[in-house]
Amino acid sequence: MKKIIICNWKLNGNKKFIKKYIKILKKNNKLYNNYIICISPPIIYMDYTSKLIKNTNILLTSQNVDIHLKGSFTGEISAKMLKNINTKYIIIGHSERRLYHKENNNILLKKIIITKKLNITPIICIGENINDYNLKNSKKICKKQLKYFIKKKGIKILKNIIIAYEPIWSIGTGKNASIKHINKINKYIKKYINNKYKNINKKFKIIYGGSVNKNNAKEILKQKNIDGLLIGKSSLNIKEFLKIIKNINT
Ligand code: PEP
Questions:
Q1: Against a cut of 0.85, is the pTM above it?
Q2: Are 65 and 79 a contacting pair, CB within 8 Å?
Q3: Within 13 Å of residue 19, how many CA atoms lie on the same side as its CB?
Q4: CB–CB of 228/221 below 8 Å?
Q5: Cα 167 to ligand 1 centroid, rounded to whole Å
Q6: Of the candidates 30, 75, 189, 193, which lies 20 to 30 Å from 224 by C-alpha distance?
Q7: Is there a contact between 209 and 171 (Cβ–Cβ < 8 Å)?
Q8: What sign has the CA pseudo-torsion 132, 137, 142, 146?
Q9: Quick check: is 94 catalytic?
Q10: Whose C-alpha lies nearest to ligand 1, atom 1?
């Protein structure tokens, strides 16, 4: 199973940046033959990016989706529209959306359902804050976040999805979680899901996000329980990102 690397550009970039970035990425395509590489630009540049990556092995990811497919919902983007421009993954439940946009579990569940309905893969972000980390509550919090979805829709809701373990305290802070900690949590989540649904492990990935950079990516990615990386800041600089890709190949 190929490991996946998702570049989350958040609210950054413009057409010039994207054109140059994709051009360099395409030139270096031999470096990521063994990985699935995904770009997640701001929604307004999704279509533009989609055209630039056509006929490459770079895949398109959305940072968001609405809970409706169409209708009077000003400012929203539907899964159908995203599908239309060849979106393969949608990030759901990023801590920034939970915090700044007050997205609760009920909203997130609707987003997961609508994403799956359109055969797009949800990337469900979970993770604890610094207080819970210090109180050694990481496992408990991650389990609670997933349990809500399982309780409402059954374990099959987690079939064919990606879980991104992203400790909130490590996002954008320069403090990545230790390998020991990530392994512990990812292993725990895999076990938790597998105990509920035998063999589902072959159908879902669990990745890590939080201050991944050229110095730590290789070590994190080589762990058995880590199926990929979600990268914010370090994916914004193509030189840095290429260093990450070069390093994980060595
Ligand atoms: C993220 O926003 O999902 C993320 C992991 O950001 P960073 O890599 O900047 O910590």
A1: yes
A2: yes
A3: 3
A4: yes
A5: 10
A6: 30
A7: yes
A8: negative
A9: yes
A10: 232
